Amino acid sequence: MDVFEAITTRASATALTEPGPSDAQIAALLQAGACAPDHGRLRPWRFLVVRGKAREELGDLMAAAAKARQPDLSQDALERERRKPLRAPLIVIVAANLASQSKIPEIEQILAAGAAAQNILLAAHGFGFGAIWRTGAPAYDPEVVKGLGLPESARIVGFLYIGSVSSPAARRSATETNAMEWTQGSSQNLSA
Protein backbone atom coordinates (compact mmCIF):
# COMPACT_ATOMS: atom_id res chain seq x y z
CA MET A 1 0.00 0.00 0.00
CA ASP A 2 1.29 3.46 -0.80
CA VAL A 3 1.54 6.19 1.80
CA PHE A 4 -1.63 8.01 0.69
CA GLU A 5 -3.65 4.80 0.87
CA ALA A 6 -2.21 4.08 4.33
CA ILE A 7 -3.18 7.52 5.59
CA THR A 8 -6.70 7.47 4.13
CA THR A 9 -7.58 3.88 5.10
CA ARG A 10 -6.19 3.78 8.64
CA ALA A 11 -8.92 3.69 11.28
CA SER A 12 -8.97 3.12 15.02
CA ALA A 13 -9.67 -0.52 15.83
CA THR A 14 -11.53 -1.11 19.09
CA ALA A 15 -11.26 -4.90 19.25
CA LEU A 16 -7.71 -6.26 19.10
CA THR A 17 -6.33 -9.72 19.73
CA GLU A 18 -3.29 -11.96 19.22
CA PRO A 19 -1.12 -12.20 17.33
CA GLY A 20 0.62 -8.91 17.86
CA PRO A 21 3.65 -7.64 15.99
CA SER A 22 6.85 -9.71 16.02
CA ASP A 23 10.07 -8.37 17.54
CA ALA A 24 11.25 -7.30 14.07
CA GLN A 25 7.95 -5.54 13.38
CA ILE A 26 8.09 -3.77 16.76
CA ALA A 27 11.58 -2.54 15.93
CA ALA A 28 10.28 -1.26 12.58
CA LEU A 29 7.32 0.47 14.28
CA LEU A 30 9.68 2.29 16.64
CA GLN A 31 11.97 3.21 13.76
CA ALA A 32 8.97 4.71 11.94
CA GLY A 33 8.11 6.67 15.08
CA ALA A 34 11.64 8.00 15.33
CA CYS A 35 11.35 9.43 11.79
CA ALA A 36 8.80 12.02 12.94
CA PRO A 37 9.36 15.72 12.29
CA ASP A 38 11.42 17.17 15.09
CA HIS A 39 12.21 20.87 15.44
CA GLY A 40 15.67 21.25 16.93
CA ARG A 41 16.50 17.55 16.53
CA LEU A 42 15.69 16.97 20.19
CA ARG A 43 14.14 13.53 19.58
CA PRO A 44 11.84 14.26 22.54
CA TRP A 45 9.83 11.06 22.16
CA ARG A 46 10.22 8.07 24.42
CA PHE A 47 8.68 4.73 23.49
CA LEU A 48 7.86 2.14 26.13
CA VAL A 49 6.95 -1.29 24.74
CA VAL A 50 4.50 -3.17 26.95
CA ARG A 51 3.53 -6.77 26.18
CA GLY A 52 3.10 -10.10 27.90
CA LYS A 53 3.02 -10.01 31.70
CA ALA A 54 4.12 -6.35 31.69
CA ARG A 55 0.56 -5.48 30.58
CA GLU A 56 -0.71 -6.80 33.95
CA GLU A 57 1.86 -4.68 35.77
CA LEU A 58 0.72 -1.64 33.78
CA GLY A 59 -2.87 -2.47 34.74
CA ASP A 60 -1.88 -2.61 38.42
CA LEU A 61 -0.20 0.80 38.05
CA MET A 62 -3.28 2.27 36.35
CA ALA A 63 -5.59 0.86 39.04
CA ALA A 64 -3.38 2.18 41.88
CA ALA A 65 -3.28 5.62 40.26
CA ALA A 66 -7.08 5.59 39.81
CA LYS A 67 -7.54 4.63 43.47
CA ALA A 68 -5.25 7.51 44.52
CA ARG A 69 -7.22 9.96 42.34
CA GLN A 70 -10.61 8.64 43.54
CA PRO A 71 -10.33 6.82 46.89
CA ASP A 72 -14.02 5.82 46.82
CA LEU A 73 -13.77 4.12 43.41
CA SER A 74 -15.69 0.83 43.33
CA GLN A 75 -13.95 -2.52 43.03
CA ASP A 76 -15.62 -3.01 39.63
CA ALA A 77 -14.23 0.30 38.37
CA LEU A 78 -10.76 -0.59 39.69
CA GLU A 79 -10.92 -3.97 37.97
CA ARG A 80 -11.93 -2.31 34.67
CA GLU A 81 -8.93 0.00 35.03
CA ARG A 82 -6.67 -2.97 35.78
CA ARG A 83 -7.86 -4.82 32.64
CA LYS A 84 -7.36 -1.92 30.21
CA PRO A 85 -3.86 -2.98 29.12
CA LEU A 86 -5.15 -6.48 28.32
CA ARG A 87 -7.21 -5.11 25.40
CA ALA A 88 -4.33 -5.68 22.96
CA PRO A 89 -1.24 -7.87 22.78
CA LEU A 90 1.03 -4.82 22.45
CA ILE A 91 0.95 -1.33 23.88
CA VAL A 92 3.45 1.30 22.85
CA ILE A 93 3.41 4.18 25.30
CA VAL A 94 4.55 7.37 23.59
CA ALA A 95 5.77 10.16 25.82
CA ALA A 96 7.40 13.52 25.25
CA ASN A 97 10.48 13.91 27.41
CA LEU A 98 10.43 17.69 27.62
CA ALA A 99 13.72 19.57 27.48
CA SER A 100 12.73 22.70 29.40
CA GLN A 101 16.14 24.31 28.90
CA SER A 102 15.75 24.10 25.13
CA LYS A 103 14.92 27.04 22.89
CA ILE A 104 12.28 24.75 21.32
CA PRO A 105 8.87 25.42 22.93
CA GLU A 106 7.39 22.54 24.93
CA ILE A 107 4.31 22.43 22.70
CA GLU A 108 6.54 21.67 19.70
CA GLN A 109 8.21 18.85 21.61
CA ILE A 110 4.80 17.39 22.49
CA LEU A 111 3.66 17.75 18.88
CA ALA A 112 6.81 15.91 17.72
CA ALA A 113 5.93 13.02 20.07
CA GLY A 114 2.39 13.09 18.67
CA ALA A 115 3.77 12.88 15.14
CA ALA A 116 5.89 9.92 16.24
CA ALA A 117 2.74 8.23 17.58
CA GLN A 118 0.97 8.78 14.26
CA ASN A 119 3.93 7.30 12.38
CA ILE A 120 3.71 4.19 14.58
CA LEU A 121 -0.03 3.87 13.90
CA LEU A 122 0.53 4.17 10.15
CA ALA A 123 3.36 1.63 10.23
CA ALA A 124 1.18 -0.81 12.21
CA HIS A 125 -1.55 -0.37 9.59
CA GLY A 126 1.02 -1.00 6.86
CA PHE A 127 1.88 -4.32 8.53
CA GLY A 128 -1.81 -5.23 8.57
CA PHE A 129 -2.39 -4.68 12.29
CA GLY A 130 -5.15 -2.70 13.89
CA ALA A 131 -4.41 0.00 16.43
CA ILE A 132 -6.04 2.64 18.55
CA TRP A 133 -4.56 5.69 20.26
CA ARG A 134 -5.89 6.11 23.79
CA THR A 135 -5.22 8.60 26.56
CA GLY A 136 -7.63 9.12 29.45
CA ALA A 137 -6.76 9.90 33.05
CA PRO A 138 -3.73 7.55 33.21
CA ALA A 139 -1.97 9.57 30.49
CA TYR A 140 -2.15 12.72 32.59
CA ASP A 141 -1.45 11.19 35.99
CA PRO A 142 1.98 12.05 37.48
CA GLU A 143 1.95 8.75 39.42
CA VAL A 144 1.63 6.80 36.18
CA VAL A 145 4.47 8.82 34.65
CA LYS A 146 6.60 8.10 37.72
CA GLY A 147 5.59 4.43 37.85
CA LEU A 148 6.71 3.99 34.25
CA GLY A 149 10.16 5.31 35.14
CA LEU A 150 9.76 8.45 33.07
CA PRO A 151 11.15 11.77 34.31
CA GLU A 152 8.74 14.13 36.05
CA SER A 153 8.89 16.48 33.06
CA ALA A 154 7.64 13.79 30.66
CA ARG A 155 4.15 13.98 29.18
CA ILE A 156 2.40 10.84 27.95
CA VAL A 157 0.85 11.61 24.58
CA GLY A 158 -0.75 8.23 24.11
CA PHE A 159 -1.13 4.55 24.79
CA LEU A 160 -1.05 2.89 21.36
CA TYR A 161 -2.89 -0.44 21.53
CA ILE A 162 -1.77 -2.68 18.64
CA GLY A 163 -2.81 -6.17 17.55
CA SER A 164 -4.78 -8.21 15.07
CA VAL A 165 -8.22 -6.84 14.31
CA SER A 166 -11.00 -9.02 15.68
CA SER A 167 -13.78 -6.82 14.31
CA PRO A 168 -13.59 -4.23 11.53
CA ALA A 169 -12.97 -0.63 12.52
CA ALA A 170 -15.48 2.05 11.58
CA ARG A 171 -14.02 4.30 8.94
CA ARG A 172 -14.54 8.04 8.76
CA SER A 173 -15.14 9.76 5.49
CA ALA A 174 -11.88 11.10 4.09
CA THR A 175 -13.81 13.94 2.43
CA GLU A 176 -14.64 15.62 5.74
CA THR A 177 -11.48 17.73 5.95
CA ASN A 178 -12.63 20.72 8.02
CA ALA A 179 -10.18 22.71 5.93
CA MET A 180 -10.33 26.48 5.72
CA GLU A 181 -8.69 28.72 3.18
CA TRP A 182 -7.40 32.06 4.33
CA THR A 183 -7.19 34.68 1.62
CA GLN A 184 -6.74 38.40 2.20
CA GLY A 185 -8.29 38.28 5.65
CA SER A 186 -11.28 36.10 4.76
CA SER A 187 -11.83 32.40 5.17
CA GLN A 188 -13.73 29.86 3.15
CA ASN A 189 -14.65 26.36 4.32
CA LEU A 190 -13.14 23.78 1.96
CA SER A 191 -14.75 20.71 3.54
CA ALA A 192 -17.00 18.63 1.33
Automatic annotation (TrEMBL):
It holds the Pfam family Nitroreductase. InterPro entries: NAD(P)H_nitroreductase, Nitroreductase, Nitroreductase-like, YdjA-like. It comes from the Bacteria. GO terms for molecular function: oxidoreductase activity. Keywords: Flavoprotein, FMN, NAD, NADP, Oxidoreductase. Binds 1 FMN per subunit. This is Putative NAD(P)H nitroreductase. It comes from Methylocystis bryophila.
